[in-house]
Amino acid sequence: MPGPRLIREYLAEMSEHLPAGIVEELADGLDQTHAHYVGQGLTPDAAAEAAVAEFGEPQVVVAAFLRASPARRAGRRLLATGPVAGLCWGAALIAGRAWTWPVPIAARVLSGAALVTVVGLLGAAAFGRHYRPVRRAGAAGCLGIAALDAAMLTAVTVAGPPLTWPVILAVTVSTARIAFTARTLRPVLTC
User: Fold this and answer.
1) Residue 140 to residues 57, 166, 177: CA-CA distances in angstroms?
2) Could you tell me which residues come within 8 angstroms of residue 5 by beta carbon, excluding any fewer than 6 positions away?
3) pTM summary value
4) How many other CB atoms are found less than 10 A from the CB of residue 116?
5) Contact, 46 vs 3, CB < 8 A?
6) What is the crossing angle of helices 131-159 and 165-190, to 10°?
7) What pLDDT tens digit does each residue of the chain (191 aa) get?
8) What are the angstrom distances between the C-alpha of 134 and each of 5, 12, 113, 115?
9) DSSP assignment of the chain, as one string?
10) Residues 6+ apart with CB under 8 A from 173
11) How far apart (Å, rounded) are the C-alpha atoms in residues 122 and 186?
12) Who's near 25: CB < 8 A, 6+ residues apart?
């Protein structure tokens, strides 16, 4: 049957770029649209062509799913909050005289490397051009930013600096980002 073969080929192209769950939803929609056109009196081939035309070119559909990706949105939001959180923590660390804390140099270097890696992952999620890598980078970036925020909260708790307004503000911002990331991570992992 040539008509459904056209739909299978369309879906095969989609599955090269999109997760199986999304392709299954597209398949259901294409089947329903195909059946609708057959019910309107079109031949199976013509109905398949009409259904595929209605759904649009694969590149356009994939691009639309990429734009709507929860991982992309999460990456952009976390990148946008990064400078605010960084300024808050910078002020808190200066106010708490963090340079006097007994933190090994290796831990400081590792923290900096982790921060650069997480920012890179979030950037890949926010601006990537392929759905699956955006999803993986978004998930890793979300987990990484939550871990970095948790590490800062732990460091402040252990170091015990005075509770100045910069420390309170930085703790509040990191706590809010952890909550946001926890809420955001589920759709990122399931998309």
Assistant:
1) 31, 28, 15
2) 48
3) 0.82
4) 10
5) yes
6) 150
7) 345 899 999 999 999 999 988 999 999 999 999 999 999 999 999 999 999 999 999 999 999 999 999 999 999 999 999 999 999 999 988 888 888 878 889 988 999 999 999 999 999 999 999 999 999 999 999 999 999 999 999 988 887 777 889 999 999 999 999 999 999 998 898 87
8) 30, 20, 21, 18
9) -HHHHHHHHHHHHHHTTS-HHHHHHHHHHHHHHHHHHHHTT--HHHHHHHHHHHH--HHHHHHHHHHT-HHHHHHHHHHHHHHHHHHHHHHHHHHTTGGGS---HHHHHHHHHHHHHHHHHHHHHHH-SSHHHHHHHHHHHHHHHHHHHHHHHHHHHHH-----HHHHHHHHHHHHHHHHHHHHHHHHHH-
10) 81, 84, 85, 88, 89
11) 16
12) none
Q: Encoding tokens for residue 96? A: 């708490």
